[in-house]
Amino acid sequence: MAKKASPIAKMEEADVHDQTLQRGKGGELHQTAGDGQPVLTTAQGAPVADDQNTLRVGARGPALIEDFHFREKIFHFDHERIPERVVHARGYGAHGYFETYDSLAAYTRADVFQRAGERTPAFVRFSTVAGSKGSFDLARDVRGFAVKIYTKEGNWDLVGNNIPVFFIQDAIRFPDIIHAVKPEPDRGFPQAQSAHDNFWDFISLTPESMHMIMWIMSDRAIPRSFRFMEGFGVHTFRFVNAKDESTFVKFHWKPKLGLQSVAWNEAVKINGADPDFHRRDLWQAIQSGNFPEWELCVQLFDQDFADSFDFDVLDPTKLIPEEVLPVQPVGRLVLDRMPENFFFETEQVAFMTQNVPPGIDFSNDPLLQGRNFSYLDTQLKRLGSPNFTHLPINAPKCPFAHFQQDGHMAMRNPTGRANYQPNSWGEGPRESPLEGYRHFPAEEAGPKVRLRAESFADHYSQARQFYISQTPPEQRHIAMALTFELSKVETPVIRERMVSHLLNIDETLAGKVAAALGIDPVPKPADAAVKTRQDLEPSPALSILERGPKRFEGRKLGVLVTEGADRALFDALEAGIMAEKAVIEIIAPKVGGVKLSDGSPLAAQQMIDGGPSVLYDAVVVLASEAGMADLLKEAAARDFVADAFAHCKFIGYTAPAFPLLEKAGAADMLDEGTVEIDGVDAVADFLKALGALRVWAREPSVKLP
Ligand code: HDE
Question: Which residues act catalytically here (predicted)?
């Protein structure tokens, strides 16, 4: 077969005389080079003969300003960047659809919820919050979960997070919390991290953030994959039906593959090994046809429930436990297509909380009210023109008509004579009192004040409820995360202030963190606006492990193989993993792969340095006696096992691989997660065990409390 030439080489080779004008599918004329590929042109459409050399005087002379092609090319390059999002700068998106289960007409007239089984196109962007565009994926951070549903009555943007509460109760504080978490302004670091003085200074002076702090210090803030996290609308919204009756609603997204997070030490190492871990994961899943899926669930309630609930439903630092008010599935979201171009779609998509279709309305949540101002405003800065709705990713997919016109980069303007209404020319769109958006006529009265409602004052009860709802390993992780973060805080009084807040949440937790930080004596509990903390019932739904998926589907097994490894065992592993709808990746001393026991070749996806075990949910070392001799000399192979063991992963190994477990310090701590694979039956047992995902019982023996 002829060697495939690069497009540039092809251009160079192309004989200019081969260029011909041809008719495209639509009948339009376009130029092609002789080999059928389009001719390179300037942005003005002029064909380019030489894209490698600027126009100059003689071969060694100065460049000429009349070189319009060079100037246009460099001009455009110089202006390629747009301002990154001030928050949620690093994100990754995908296309898909939302499918309604049953009509919700009794609650909402939103068209998207009227017909069972109807599919509506959607675009989702996941993100971290604090880091800039080029930061790493596994920062300890909230994840954005922004969904745009292109309904027949306009775009509905549900701009949520993977945590159901927020740091602050009033939007006016948003610039402060964000300034505090971003790199400290004098030194310009740390990037994408909350473990620094400014963040904890602000937090320790902001008791309303304590509930969110419990979440952000939990494993929720280091998800294994976007595919394994929940999403939340956070605020209370309203559904409004055709009779103009309102029902309060909170939105939840539940991942079909269940929840899963990584260990902190693992997150730190993933960031080095693959800073794009989450985006690669989503890309690979969708490209291989494993389309991630979430159920949209709602909590519906009326004013009576709101009045009787322990907390104010307008307070975004509070949630309504699922055990108190069940979540009902109303539809599903499937992501089945990657954008064709990252910038064009994922970077230019503009989410706005105020994008709601008729039948969905706002509550008075003071955070939501502020967001409704911010999102429109920020798009102008970021996208540079009020015409950002002309971009295909932001344009509605339903008919639309209005008299907005002109502005930078207008792609379409109203046609005809009338660009106003009412007009006498019988032209243009008209209002529609019946079909149009009607705001719910909530009655409002009161003095104009800057005042926080007293019903927002209890900052500790739900923080405690979250903590006591966690399983012991998850509680341990919260203590470890607080200790780690506060150990990076250089100012002792900030650390102590945090411990005094923790005392209002859980004395044992506060004691553990104080001891681990070496704070002695333990400070007094922080003064609280509400003196008595309510002792709420635990809510198991708040734990990741309590309701784990108990299956390996959608996860990844890393198999470290050596020369001469057993073919039958490998085949059994591969078949079992495929049957589980999981993924297998081969790591070998050389990326060229190995020859297995029967002499057949096995290609590898990673060489040992490029495939550390932190990239996998479980690992196997499939070694032969001969192959092991070399591998034992490789530090990366030792780390492969040592890390998998420390991160409480399942480790399968063949007998010749045992010396590697010895080197990794795991040999005298074998447990149910370390499984010798001595035959095809053992493969089956190992694969079955993988459903537990991790052996958290191992953790106390590998990590100080
Ligand atoms: Fe945002 N937020 N936010 N936020 N937010 C933005 O809008 C803002 C808040 C969320 O993938 C910005 O287009 C204020 C809560 C997501 O493009 C900006 C307040 C929740 C995304 C903005 C909040 C979110 C953003 C920056 C406090 C969860 C990424 C770029 C009142 C419910 C969307 C942009 C994407 C982005 C403002 C708080 C979620 C500046 C003022 C609470 C997922 O408009």
Answer: 88, 161
